[in-house]
Amino acid sequence: MTVKKVPKPAVWLVLFAFLAEAVVIPVRDVKVSAAGAEPIVPAASALTAFGAVSSTDAVRFDLIKHEMRINLSGGEASLDGKAVKAATPIKRNDRLYVPLRALGESGAVSSVAWNSAKRQVRVVSRREELNFRIGSTRVYDGQGKALPAENFTIPAPLLIGGTAYVPVCSLTLFGLTAGAENGQLFWRWSEKKAQVLQPYWETGEDEAVFTVLYAKELYAPGAGSSIGSGAWNSSRNIVGKDIYLDGSLYNRIQLSVPLEPGINPVAISSIGMAAAGIRIRRNVSDPSVIPVNITEDGKEFLTLESPASGYLKLKSGDSFTISGKVINPPNLAIGKLTVTIQRYVPDAEDVRKDFTTVSTKEIPVKNGTFSGSVTLPRSGSYRICVNGLTYTTFPGHGPASVTWANLSAEVAE
Length: 413
What we know:
The protein is mostly beta strands and about 425 residues long. It folds into three domains: about 5-65 and about 195-280, Immunoglobulin-like, CATH 2.60.40; about 75-180, Copper Amine Oxidase, Chain A, domain 1 (2-Layer Sandwich), CATH 3.30.457.10; about 285-410, Immunoglobulin-like (Sandwich), CATH 2.60.40. It has helices spanning about 10-15, 100-105, 295-300, and strands at about 5, 25, 30, 40, 55-70, 75-80, 80-85, 90, 95-100, 110-115, 120-125, 130-135, 140, 160, 165, 175-180, 185-195, 200-205, 205-215, 220-225, 230-235, 235-245, 250-260, 260-270, 275-280, 295, 300-305, 310-315, 320-325, 335-345, 355-365, 370-375, 380-390, 400-410. A hairpin with a 2-residue loop joins strand 22 and strand 23. It is elongated, with a radius of gyration of 27 Å. The chain starts with a strand and ends with a strand. It holds the Pfam family Cu_amine_oxidN1.
C-alpha cells in the first residue's frame, strides 16, 4: 500500500475547499443500533441490464444531464423529453430572449425572484447569485455591485406583460449551454450528485479497502481522513471501466484508507463535487499493541514516554498521563505543549466535523521534559492530539498548531 502524507494541518482545512456545486443524497433507510451509536449498513444491490452496483461500492457519483426545449412558435415545451408548460421566448432586434420564469421552472437555476422597486431580477444558480436590471446592460453581484463591464455586459433585459426576459447569450453566465435549432430554443446543464451506499461498517484491519462507482465524465475520486498533523490521501486503483448502468457509463475505482483504532470518518470526493462521508470503525482486540502515533514533524522534536499505548480503554472520570522529552529546535525554546481533546459527535452533513474539540490543556516543558494529566469525564470516542509549534495558516484564520503525536481513547460509563 502506498500512502502519501500531507504534513501540515492547514492542508486538511483546504483539501476540500474546492468541492462545491453538488448535492449529496443522504442514505435512505439507514437504521440505528439499539445503543444509538452507529448506523447499520443497508444492503446495496441495484441490478441493471448491463451492470450492477457492487457490494464493495461505498459511494456512487452521478452526472445527471438535463435539457429544456421550447418551441419558438409557442405551444410546446419539454424538459428531459417530457412535455411541460413554459412561457414562449421572444425575439427583439434579431436577438432571442428567454423568459426567466421558464429558466427557474426548468431547475437549471436554484431560484428566480423579482424586485419591483429596483426593477431587478435576482437569479441564484449553483455557482453564484447574479442580478439583472430591466433596461441595463450591466450585470450585478449579490451585493448589488456592478461586475466588470468587459466580461459582464449583455443586451438589456426586457419586461413585457409582467414577464422578465434576458438574452439567451446571458445563460452562459450560469454555466448553461444554450442556443436555437430546428425552431426550438434549448438550454442544457448537468447536475452532480453523490449517493452514499454504505455509510458505516466495522473491520479488524488497519486499513479499509472499498470501491467507488463514478460517472465516466467525472474526475476519479479520492478519499481522506484527518490523521495526525494533516490528511492522508488514499491509494487508488481503477478496477473497472465503461460500466453501463442506468443509461450512462461509469468507472469503478478501488480506494485504500489507513485506519486509526476506533471510529474513522472518511470523506470521499471528486473534483468539482461536494464530499460524501462514510464512517468505518476499526476494532482492536489488544490495545497494548497499538503505539502512539508520532507524526513526521513530531519525530524531530518529541520523545513520548507515556502513555505506552495509542489506544486507551477507560471509564468515565479516568485520567492518564502524557509525559516525555522535547528537543528544542534551533533558536526557539518550547515552553509548553498543548493537548487538544476531541470527542466524536456524528455530524449530519459533514463527517469532517464529527470530531469536535471539547477541551484543551497546556503542559509546561521544563528543562526539556514535560508531564501532565488528562481526564476524560464523559463516555464516548476521543482523539487526543499533542501539539507543539504554532504558525499562521491564512489571514483571519488565526494560528494553527503542528500536531506531534496523537492517540485514540474509548471511554465507557
